[in-house]
Amino acid sequence: MVVGQFSSRGCVKVFDLCPLMRGVGVGQTITMFTIVGYYAALLSLAMRYFVDSFQYTLPWSECRSDWDCVDSSKASIHISNSTTTKPSAEFYFTKTVTEQFSDLENGIGIPNYQLVLCLLVSWVLITVLVIKGIKSSGKASYFLAIFPYVILFGLLVRAVTLDGAFDGIRYLITPQWDKLLDTEVWYEAVSQCFFSLTVGLGAVIVYSSFNSFSNNIYRDAMIISWLDTFTSMLSGVIVFGVVGNVAYITKKNVTDVMKGGPELTFVVYPDAIAKMPTWPNFFAVMFFLMFILLGLGSNMGIVTTILTSIKDRYPGVKIWKVVIAIAVAGFCCGLVYISPGGFYVLDVVDYYGVTFPTLVLVVLEAFTFCWLYGVNRICMDIKFMLGIKTGIFWRICWGFLTLSILITITCMQVFKYKAKKVPHGYNVFGWCLFGVTVLQVVGWAIYATARQPQSSFGSKLCNALKPTDDWGPESEQVKRNYNVTVAKRKTKRSRIKTLRARVFKNVSK
């Protein structure tokens, strides 16, 4: 947030502070485009369920003649003449909505036309909200960000009053200390923070770049971080309250009922709503409306990030042309994920094209900001911009702690790598997607080095590590004052000779 607001640059152009690493921003933009394809696809599923929620009898609450299941609307799923205990909500999701394949041996199939229409509507809404630029999307965000809280608190009241809800909530808040030794837990925790706060994906830099130069970014960062944590906990209580209710009704353990990924939203929740004795349609409508609003807000942020990266590079291009191009490309990609084999592809793309490369790129981003540019330089920028002196806690975190943890988790994840259980070609495709994203760093580093005017390779490389001549605040007057501050810093820094002293200086003063 600091570098975005300070420079008024997007997630690619912000690397004017170190042109050698511009590929990190390019890689993050590619990652965001990868995400927007399946985010919109999940939004289309929510739209399908939202429309279905208006039917007098919820379509997933009862079994059909060709399903070997039990009605989700029943208080208990124990039926003696049934060979399965799967609820009708699960069959509705896999057989009717997604028509899901059991594997990818026969390809991904052709998507359901109803989902195609929902995907088209999703992209039309996203386009309308973003096409006029950040001002229009910013106004829409007030509603898209605030109204879901109204629904969340309504669902919270209902969730905690369900039978067995506190069994689920107790499971949520009861620590399992042995899990702290599992690197997979730390990997998932870091990934969750990245996606929840959109850290390391470029969106934070883009949105903060539209702030006024003197905006109190420290206050904003604290509010956003704490509010995000509160929202996550609130959502967790609602989810596990509902899961606890399903476990109570079906006489199962919470762990047996709990599902991850899309199945939590489109199987567990619909199943629980179908079991509600009063107003199941109302709660279904409210839940999927909330999901749609949150999905629109997330997709707007992603599209805006991609749009800003392109506009920074090609400022003469019309916004509406870029937005429509993103929408068309995103719609075409989304068709893959709503196909019968789409969720298997989504799992591959999410790991190889988003989660894993994001971890690698954020390590490089942290290294670039905190060492190549320098913690001390960032703190100088903060003091110049806000008049705030950065404390030792933040300096140690930025300079050592955060980077060390990220590197450790990344290395452990590499050592524990296991190929996805899909046909070999899909894993190959995944690694190609990872390569295209991460190797942007190498390609742009070569390009940035080659463009330097010096004759020797060493001189070119050193110059590519330095901020560009126009790096700094957007205002010319403020930029001149900043250049004076930088010149004074260079004079003072030139007196520090030893490497040890430079390392200490980077994070201590």
TrEMBL record:
Signal peptide: none annotated. It comes from the Eukaryota. It holds the Pfam family SNF. The chain crosses the membrane at residues 30-51, 113-131, 143-166, 186-210, 222-249, 282-307, 319-339, 351-375, 396-416, 428-450. It is found in: Membrane. It is a multi-pass membrane protein. Keywords: Amino-acid transport, Glycoprotein, Ion transport, Membrane, Sodium, Sodium transport, Symport, Transmembrane, Transmembrane helix, Transport. PANTHER family: SODIUM-DEPENDENT NUTRIENT AMINO ACID TRANSPORTER 1-RELATED, SODIUM/CHLORIDE DEPENDENT TRANSPORTER. Unusual broad substrate spectrum amino acid:sodium cotransporter that promotes absorption of the D isomers of essential amino acids. Neutral amino acids are the preferred substrates, especially methionine and phenylalanine. Belongs to the sodium:neurotransmitter symporter (SNF) (TC 2.A.22) family. This is Sodium-dependent nutrient amino acid transporter 1.
